[in-house]
Amino acid sequence: AQKITQTQPGMFVQEKEAVTLDCTYDTSDPSYGLFWYKQPSSGEMIFLIYQGSYDQQNATEGRYSLNFQKARKSANLVISASQLGDSAMYFCAMREEYTGNQFYFGTGTSLTVIP
Amino acid sequence: DSGVTQTPKHLITATGQRVTLRCSPRSGDLSVYWYQQSLDQGLQFLIQYYNGEERAKGNILERFSAQQFPDLHSELNLSSLELGDSALYFCASSSSGSNQPQHFGDGTRLSIL
């Protein structure tokens, strides 16, 4: 089974609108971390936000927030007030405490912000 | 700046050749990971090292090998290169703990002619 599933290959959003990028995960480890990365067309991988499995509150970092639904094993990224610079590839990733240092990445979602 | 340094940034070579990609992790990070990203593709995990020892292997071809040295820098060796090896190769490093993210270098863009 896939550890991380991103079912939206491509998404479009109007500038200044909010958008949600979906991510579901699969683990039996009670302790894990969930991460989102942004990859603009220039190629670099930028760490955006982290959510821990024991965190009671959803993580937020500026315009980024993570809608964490533990029972559903989902960790959706919400980008508010989209900007043209948000157009990029977005990857969801997970790290399990039990397996130590290995990371699992989804296949990514390509987001295009329309002016 | 992620603190992870990859060299070279670009590499152009021919089929059949051998190249070495180099990575210096963030200060204090013991884990180093290598990924391959072909055009418009996701990240393919190749291999992971922790404090000099191999910890996990992904879809790494036998023509590829890697190592992590005592000073924690890592090298990825690609030999008998084929056209399909053209890709962006990332190195990432992390500290231990499930709450620690990976920090990525800027990548080495390898073009096989």
Question: How does this structure look, described?
Answer:
- The complex is a heterodimer of chains A (115) and B (113).
- In chain A, a hairpin with a 4-residue loop joins strand 8 and strand 9.
- In chain A, the strands form 3 sheets. In chain A, strands 2, 5, 6, 10, 11 and 12 form a 6-stranded mixed sheet that branches. In chain A, strands 3-9-8-7 form a 4-stranded antiparallel sheet, with no helix packed on it.
- Chain A is 0% helix and 51% strand.
- Chain A is mainly beta and 115 residues long.
- The model of chain A has no long low-confidence stretch (mean pLDDT 94).
- Chain A contains no helices and 12 strands.
- In chain A, 35% of the residues are buried.
- Chain B has 113 residues and is mainly β.
- Chain B has no helices and 11 strands.
- In chain B, the strands form 2 sheets. In chain B, strands 2, 4, 5, 6, 9, 10 and 11 form a 7-stranded mixed sheet that branches. A 4-stranded antiparallel sheet of chain B has the order 1-3-8-7, with no helix packed on it.
- The radius of gyration of chain B is 13 Å and the shape is globular.
- The relative contact order of chain B is 0.33.
- The mean pLDDT of chain B is 94.
- Classes of the chains: A mainly beta (115), B mainly beta (113).
- Chains A and B meet through strand 5, strand 6 and strand 10 of A and strand 5, strand 9 and strand 10 of B.
List keywords for this structure.
heterodimer, A: 115 residues, mainly beta, 6-stranded mixed β-sheet, 4-stranded antiparallel β-sheet, B: 113 residues, 7-stranded mixed β-sheet, 50% strand, globular
In short:
Chain A is mainly beta and 115 residues long.
Radius of gyration of chain A: 14 Å
Which structural class best describes the helix and strand composition of chain B? mainly beta
Q: What is the radius of gyration of chain B computed over CA atoms, rounded to a whole number of angstroms?
A: 13 Å
Number of helices of chain B: 0
Q: Count of DSSP E strands of chain A? A: 12
Instruction: Point out poorly predicted stretches of chain B.
Output: none
Largest sheet of chain A: 6 strands, mixed
Q: Tell me what portion of residues of chain B adopts beta-strand conformation.
A: over 45%
Kindly report the average pLDDT value of chain B: 94
The count of strands of chain B amounts to 11
Average per-residue pLDDT of chain A, rounded, comes to: 94
**Total of DSSP H or I helical runs spanning 4+ residues of chain A:** 0
**Poorly predicted runs of 5 or more residues of chain A:** none
Provide the helix percentage of chain B: under 10%
